[in-house]
Amino acid sequence: MTATLLRTAADLHARARTGRRAVVMTMGALHEGHATLIRTARGIAGPDGEVVVTVFVNPLQFGAGEDLDRYPRTLDADVELAGESGADAVFAPSVDEVYPGGEPQVRISAGPMGERLEGAARPGHFDGMLTVVAKLLHLTRPDVALYGQKDAQQLALIRRMVRDLNFGVEIVGVPTVREEDGLALSSRNRYLSPAERRTALALSQALFAGRDRHAAQEALRARAREVPATLARAEALSAIGESRAAADAHAVATTAGGPAAVRAAARLVLDEAARLDPPLRLDYLALVDPADFTEIGDDFTGEAVLAVAARVGDTRLIDNLPLTFGTFGDAS
């Protein structure tokens, strides 16, 4: 499938529309993660719908000293990959097309959620991101827009903007795509030297360590709930040699765990990576409520996000994993 390259909103609006239009927003330098988004969009739009991929490096979301000038621009390859993945069109507007009057004086404010984690590390980033997303939603007029869950805070803010400001569009999050070794796919991965890439693996390894610690804790809690409290049942278990296992399950499940243990397991991996050559320089490790990206407490139940951001060499990378607390209820 060959995607049509469009440079202006007028050209995009001139296209005949029959079914649903699904839009995938990117800054270009497309990779398999983007291809997954496009394929998902193709499935949502269906054979009678249309998939549009936007390619626009938005200057508003880059702060002073960030990598706007060196951000990879590979439009020809992007159009090819988009078409192969199922896109009908690639909308690649110029800065003047998106911001015809120069930098906009009226912008979207990300609010308190936009000042946490990524927002604290990159002041103004989310205001610029939401402003361009709002503009691109208006310019492309989709029925549904898809975004990767790797940028979890971005996705949460887009969903909040669409809900709070009554945008008539469905927002779909698509799971993170990873390399075989676990590194989350990112256009910035190409900046990494072989040695830096080895260090960068600590981001996903830390998340996996936190996830595994959480899974073990939850499994023990489930096991503890199955252990009977009555003396007769305990004696019956003892007769078949299970009482020690039951006692161990109770002991571990009722010791310190939960969010604190998840953070500790992830932090251990990151601390070790800080001693590598080259070292990993941690920006933050956070375990947050996806509703507002505030840190969760030890008694938290429900959906959470374990998020990390760090620098390796001159490259800044982010990653996250979703977790659920309280799956099996409290051990007793």
Give me a quick take on this structure.
This protein is an alpha/beta fold. 41% of the residues lie in helices and 18% in strands.
Q: How would you characterize the overall build of this protein?
A:
41% of the residues lie in helices and 18% in strands. It is built from 11 helices and 9 strands. It has 332 residues and is α/β, with parallel strands linked by helices. Strands 1-4-3-2-5-6 form a 6-stranded parallel beta sheet, sandwiched between helices. A 3-stranded antiparallel beta sheet has the order 7-8-9, with helices on one face. Mean pLDDT is 90; it is low at 251-255.
SSE pattern, N- to C-terminal: EHEHEHEHHHEHEHHHHEEE
What is the mean pLDDT?
90
Uncertain regions spanning at least 5 consecutive residues: 251-255
Structural class: alpha/beta
Mind describing the biggest β-sheet?
A: 6 strands, parallel
Beta-strand portion reads: 15-25%
Percent helix: 40-55%
N-to-C terminal Cα separation, in Å?
A: 58 Å
Q: What's the count of strands?
A: 9
Shape annotation: globular
Instruction: For the largest sheet, list the strands in their spatial order.
Output: 1-4-3-2-5-6
Radius of gyration: 23 Å
Number of helices: 11
